[in-house]
Design brief:
This protein is α/β, with parallel strands linked by helices and 223 residues long. It has one domain: Rossmann fold (3-Layer(aba) Sandwich). The protein has nine helices and nine strands. It has a seven-stranded mixed sheet, sandwiched between helices. It is globular, with a radius of gyration of 17 Å.
Length: 223
């Protein structure tokens, strides 16, 4: 363990545990470690919930399952589907779902978000923390190098995943539903333009504890 620490391996990757929104999550080399920035996304969703309408939630690129598990744990009656294209990440998500007592409320599906007809239902809420780091970005710290590259990096200067979601998520969201996205530093303008050019309406943006614009919230018309 000392050798791993000296090599920059994050503590969460060594002990296979990371707390997120007050809940313990198992994590390993196949998943992105939950980060405090992403708690901003969870808080934004919970702030919009009305108690008389339990939401159906779709989590795109679930990883450890920390986002959807935290939502379902904190929103009475909420249920949902967690997707990931990584088989190994889904194993981690399923483990966390089971350990948190949510097996009857959250299903996992191996799928990507680049095809419009992956799902046979529409959701009240869609959440995603997609890969958004450009492959040439020098700001990636040592700890992040121990996360899976597919969960971190995206082509098109880090915007490829957002283009797929903007194009396809209309098919997955109810007419009065909302889409919540985590974004990277200084990506706000580009991502807003991508979504508005695909027929989405920006509701608001929210900043993390460091004051960095981190969450974008959209509504969109049915195709």
């Amino acid at each position: 363990m000392a050798h791993q620490l000296r090599c920059g391996v994050p503590v969460a990757k060594i002990i296979h545990k990371k707390w997120f929104y007050g809940l313990p999550f198992y994590t390993n080399r196949h998943t992105l470690d939950p980060r405090p920035d992403t708690e901003t996304l969870v808080a934004a969703v919970i702030a919009d919930i009305t108690p008389d309408s339990p939401p159906r939630i779709l989590d795109l690129g679930t990883g450890t399952g920390c986002i959807i598990c935290s939502l379902v744990k904190n929103i009475p009656g909420a249920t949902g589907i967690a997707i990931d294209k990584s088989h190994m990440a889904l194993r981690v998500a399923r483990y966390n779902i089971q350990k948190l007592g949510l097996a009857g409320k959250i299903n996992t599906v191996r799928a990507s978000f680049d095809k419009p007809h992956n799902f046979h239902e529409r959701f009240d809420i869609i959440v995603s923390n997609p890969p958004y780091i450009a492959t040439t970005d020098p700001r990636v710290n040592t700890a992040a190098t121990h996360d899976p590259k597919m969960a971190l990096y995206a082509s098109d200067n880090g915007l490829a995943a957002y283009r797929s979601i903007a194009k396809n998520a209309h098919y997955w969201l109810k007419d009065n539903g909302k889409l919540y996205l985590e974004i990277g530093i200084d990506q706000g303008t580009d991502i807003k333009n991508i979504f508005m050019n695909n027929g989405w309406n920006l509701c608001r943006s929210e900043s993390d504890l460091a004051g960095i614009e981190r969450i974008l919230i959209f509504t969109g018309a049915r195709p």
